[in-house]
Design a protein that fits this description.
The protein has 308 residues and is of the alpha/beta class. The chain folds into two domains: 152 residues, Rossmann fold (3-Layer(aba) Sandwich); 144 residues, LD-carboxypeptidase A C-terminal domain-like (Glucose Oxidase, domain 1), CATH 3.50.30. Helix content is 29%, strand content 24%. The strands form two sheets. It has a seven-stranded mixed beta sheet with strand order 6-13-12-7-8-9-10. The protein has a six-stranded mixed beta sheet with strand order 2-1-3-4-5-11, with helices on both faces.
């Protein structure tokens, strides 16, 4: 049984198309004994976004206000699109000054990856690639795997993710763990919000992207020199991409093998991270050790904020 925590909902991207999912998510977290606030952000609407740019940036900037009580967990409402619109509105100095070293877990994935990249690049803050309110905690059926991984990651000073997915590479490397949604990472290359990470372990995922589009984004990271600086690349879930007869045998596996050849860095596959129902929680900016062989792989993580 997890300990009880204070959870604050933020809406940095889109608004929820299904308010029932919001209600389910909040109810489930409260049923576990957690104190949830901020769910009123789900009522905001501005075009396709969960509020104006100023409102959505304000959700995060209030964490820099000494008068605002810090929650244990900051939980993104949902993804979609909109985070890049508020990157230049965030109070990075204020957030770094108040949150650096604090036992606080800032959580989300998908479009939220843009926020995570920026917070690490500009404020040095470690955040969590993690479930969100509507898609995960508010799903009609909550994944037990997702729920267990979330609380293990947030409440443990060190944890290990193991997957019995046979790998064609044998590696044992360590480095800074970082990543998230591939489209968001590729979009921020060359901007002040893209962290420069040497010797990292990069994990990526995406949804509704054809393999050639995934390849193109990986080429963007390759040509920009990002992949060459990493010790390994971990591929999470890439669901929803539809093949066509024109592909003529070009599928996700063929694309991965090509990227292996082009980049020359170890690539591990089969991480349950992305837009599927099962989602492992990973700290962006933590220390990690990745071991892989023909039996599977393990990822041991430490050095991240741990909730008391």
């Amino acid at each position: 049984m997890t300990r009880t925590h204070t959870i604050e909902i933020v809406a940095p991207s889109g608004y929820p198309p299904d308010m029932a999912a919001v209600e389910r998510g909040v109810a489930r977290l409260r049923a576990q004994g957690h104190r949830v606030s901020g769910e009123d952000v789900a009522q905001r609407r501005y075009l396709r976004f969960g509020g104006t740019d100023a409102q959505r940036a304000g959700d995060l900037n209030r964490l820099a206000d000494p008068a605002h009580p810090l929650p244990d967990i900051v939980l993104a409402l949902r993804g979609s699109y909109g985070a890049v619109r508020i990157l230049d509105l965030l109070d990075y100095a204020g957030l770094a000054g108040r949150l650096a070293g604090a036992p606080i877990a800032i959580c989300g994935h998908s479009d939220f990856t843009a926020i995570q990249l920026a917070l690490f690049a500009r404020a040095g803050l470690v955040t969590f690639g993690a479930p969100m309110l509507t898609a995960n905690f508010g799903a009609e059926t909550v994944s037990a795997f997702t729920d267990a991984c979330f609380w293990t990651a947030l409440e443990s000073s060190e944890f290990t993710v193991r997957e019995p997915v046979a790998q064609c590479v044998e590696i044992d490397v360590g480095g800074t763990l970082w990543g998230g949604n591939l489209a968001m990472i590729a979009a921020l290359v060359g901007t002040p919000y893209m962290p420069h990470i040497d010797g990292g372990i990069l994990f990526v995922e995406d949804v509704n992207e054809h393999p050639y589009r995934v390849e193109r984004m990986l080429y963007q990271l390759h040509h920009a020199g990002v992949l060459a600086r990493q010790r390994a690349l971990i591929l999470g879930d890439f669901i929803g991409g539809k093949l066509a007869p024109l592909d003529n045998g070009y599928d996700f596996s063929a694309m991965v093998e090509h990227i292996r050849t082009v980049t020359g860095i170890p690539i591990v596959t089969g991480l349950r991270f992305g837009h599927g129902s099962d989602l492992v929680t990973l700290p962006f900016g933590a220390r990690a050790r990745l071991q892989a062989d023909g039996e599977g792989f393990s990822l041991t993580v430490s050095g991240h904020p741990t909730l008391a």
